[in-house]
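Weekly modeling sync, notes
Attendees: AB, CL, MP (scribe)

Item 1: holo prediction request
CL wants a bound-state model with nicotinamide-adenine-dinucleotide before deciding which constructs to order. AB pointed out that an apo prediction alone won't tell us much about the pocket. Agreed to run with the ligand included and paste results into these notes for async review.

Input as submitted:
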Amino acid sequence: KISDYTVRRLSVYCHTLEELEHDGMDVVSSARLAKLAGTNPAQVRKDLSYFGNFGKRGSGYPVTDLKSRIRKILGIDHVWRVVLVGAGNLGSALFSYKDFERHGFQIVSILDTDPKKVGTKWDGIWVSSFDKCNKVVKSSGAEVAVLVTPAAVAQDAVNRLVDAGIKGILNFAPVKLEAPSHVQVRNVNITIELEGLSFSMKDLQEE
Amino acid sequence: KISDYTVRRLSVYCHTLEELEHDGMDVVSSARLAKLAGTNPAQVRKDLSYFGNFGKRGSGYPVTDLKSRIRKILGIDHVWRVVLVGAGNLGSALFSYKDFERHGFQIVSILDTDPKKVGTKWDGIWVSSFDKCNKVVKSSGAEVAVLVTPAAVAQDAVNRLVDAGIKGILNFAPVKLEAPSHVQVRNVNITIELEGLSFSMKDLQEE
Ligand SMILES: NC(=O)c1ccc[n+]([C@@H]2O[C@H](COP(=O)([O-])OP(=O)(O)OC[C@H]3O[C@@H](n4cnc5c(N)ncnc54)[C@H](O)[C@@H]3O)[C@@H](O)[C@H]2O)c1
Ligand SMILES: NC(=O)c1ccc[n+]([C@@H]2O[C@H](COP(=O)([O-])OP(=O)(O)OC[C@H]3O[C@@H](n4cnc5c(N)ncnc54)[C@H](O)[C@@H]3O)[C@@H](O)[C@H]2O)c1
């Protein structure tokens, strides 16, 4: 089984290759790709070896080709239709973040329980009542949910989303969620990013 | 140099140990810690070996002791004073997220340029004008900045924050930032979390 840490590196390689492609680079060495991605060349070669032969033969990786192959490995060569559950602060920020769409994630519906929000329109998409979860998920064709509700209602929301046919949930609510084995739940905690920053700042202070 | 991926695993070990401690566990095996953290026992032992001897001697790790040692390694045994730069949607969501304070990150000041926001108070903390960046950073003792401004103004904000003495920046704006070598900039991209979810969902579809 491929660990989540390996998958995260693949994402970083992919984003790095996009930037190199944007800068007009045709070929990149594993050494350069590793340095830009914060790892080492042996790790790059090992990560890629799980997925086949990316033949370097001493001349480096073709940037566009490697990017496309990693996108396929990550499953982002497919456009995932996303339902945003919770139209609050975090929901608003994620809704208007353009990078999602560039990587194959399109928000197609929004759900909330607040009567002041339900019935408003965000950039052409209605904010629907969570009561209509089943109908909205099915009619919008959503496969993935981004869950940005308060923790207290998150498990109930997950149960309703699973019943409606959602297959994957990106959860921000600070609570452990239960879901059947055929549904993938991935938890996000921004605190981990601050801890990474703390580590690198502490290093600096000690030098 | 310790890679960012290793540091991220340390964070996950730390959060896992907090949950075990909360559940009343005194000791945990490297096998169980690895499984809960999404990695393998050899990786746990290797990650910890960079930082000294965490002597398992076949009886497992003492939960509270290992947690405290990892907190010290991450530098979160110290309370980091944080200035929030940008009082918009993402800023609001991060401001009210209680998990930051539980891991040693306290938001002590808020900066924005919008006259409708400047002068308001969030939970006892004034939203100050970014024009007063230098004065506010110094008087609030902020060491770290969380940057949630539009991309177009982010580099200027970084320059002003560095002049004010900020040593670390957690950047959410989708732009590459330049900073002197004594200032740590860490970029966050939630898209990577969605890509991780995509990978695990794709796996499922192919089984
Ligand atoms: N994981 C992280 O790093 C991180 C960071 C910040 C915030 N959070 C969490 O994200 C969540 C959202 O934060 P926020 O600042 O946007 O909160 P918010 O209060 O601004 O928004 C929550 C929204 O959920 C809606 N809601 C309530 N019950 C609902 C239900 N049953 N179904 C659908 N929608 C419902 C509310 O009406 C509101 O619009 C919180 O749980 C918060 O703790 C996580
Ligand atoms: N990295 C990610 O995963 C991710 C996810 C969502 C949003 N974002 C990014 O985060 C940023 C904030 O998003 P948002 O939805 O909160 O936007 P927003 O428009 O709601 O908030 C931006 C805030 O910044 C303030 N501002 C503008 N110029 C400023 C300056 N010079 N100094 C201080 N404050 C200033 C605005 O007045 C506003 O209050 C954007 O750059 C967005 O692209 C990143």
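Recorded for review: The domain at 80-191 of chain B is CATH 3.40.50.720 (Rossmann fold).
Action items: CL to compare against the apo run; MP to circulate these notes.
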